[in-house]
Structure formats: C-alpha cells, structure tokens
Amino acid sequence: MAESPMQINALIVDATDPERLAAFWSELLGRPVVARMGPYVWLLREGGLGLGFQRTDDPKSGKNRMHFDITSPDPAAEQQRVELLGGRRLEQYADGGFLVMADPEGNEFCVIPEGPFELDDEGRADYLG
C-alpha cells in the first residue's frame, strides 16, 4: 500500500461547555489544557495526536458515530474514577461485555484492558468477567 501524505492531526469533540469537557478529559487522560483559541480548548498533544473541544450551541443527540477506546490496566476499577469526574456508565451496552462510559456531555467511550482480550463470534468482550 502506498504511503499517504495525509494523517489524522487532531480529534475535535463538539461541546456545549468546552471548558468543562476539556477539564474532564484532561483529568481522565493526564493531559493538561495547553491552549484556548476562539471556540476551542486544547489538551496537550501526545503521540502526534491533538485533542480539542469546540464550543457549539447544539447539544449531543443520538449515539456517537465514532468513539474513543481508552486503555487501562484495570478497566473495572477505572469506572469509579470516571464517575467521580462526572462521567457515567451506559448500562444499555452491558450485554456486549465492554465497559462503555459517557463523558459529562454524553459522548460514549470504552475503557478496555491494556493487553489482549477475547471477543466471541458476536463481538462480545470478556474482560469484565
């Protein structure tokens, strides 16, 4: 496959309160807020990838078409920390075996183990026991 001159530079999350959402993700990921420009709040770039939050007047509606998978040595233990920061578990996805959480504005993300884990033929995970 030929090398493409295009790369993903940053992921931008729409937010009705970008300061609040940036603070949540900053604490969760250990990436400090490093810039504010116009309607954007930016976290420290890591691994070449930027993460920004853009102010919008439109609240989130419906399921995300794209979500973050965040790794942790102990996903089950991480749930409490996410909730203390203002996130919540989305129980409607529990049958899939993934730890699906939502940030304070309802954006879905999964907390997955750092190492490999198994999926069954239906795509259900097994790492939560």
Q: Provide the CATH architecture of the largest domain.
A: Roll
Look at the helices and sheets and give the structural class: alpha/beta
In total, how many beta strands? 8
Strand content: 25-35%
Largest sheet: 4 strands, mixed
- Give the overall silhouette: globular
Mean pLDDT figure: 94
Query: What is the CATH fold-level name of the largest domain?
Result: 2,3-Dihydroxybiphenyl 1,2-Dioxygenase, domain 1
> Any low-confidence stretches, pLDDT <50, length ≥5?
none
Q: Helical content, roughly?
A: 10-25%
CATH class of the largest domain, named Alpha Beta
Task: State the helix count.
Answer: 2
CATH superfamily of the largest domain: 2,3-Dihydroxybiphenyl 1,2-Dioxygenase, domain 1
If strands are numbered along the chain, what order do they take across the biggest sheet? 1-4-3-2
Q: H/E series, N to C?
A: EHEEEEHEEE
Number of domains: 2
Terminal CA distance: 39 Å
- The gyration radius over C-alpha positions equals 16 Å
Q: Which oligomeric state applies? A: single chain
Describe, in plain words, how this protein is organized in 3D.
- It comes from Streptomyces sp. R08.
- Residues 11-112 form the Glyoxalase-like domain.
- This protein is of the alpha/beta class.
- It has two helices and eight strands.
- It has helices spanning 18-29, 75-84, and strands at 10-15, 33-37, 40-46, 49-55, 68-72, 88-89, 99-102, 108-113.
- The relative contact order is 0.18.
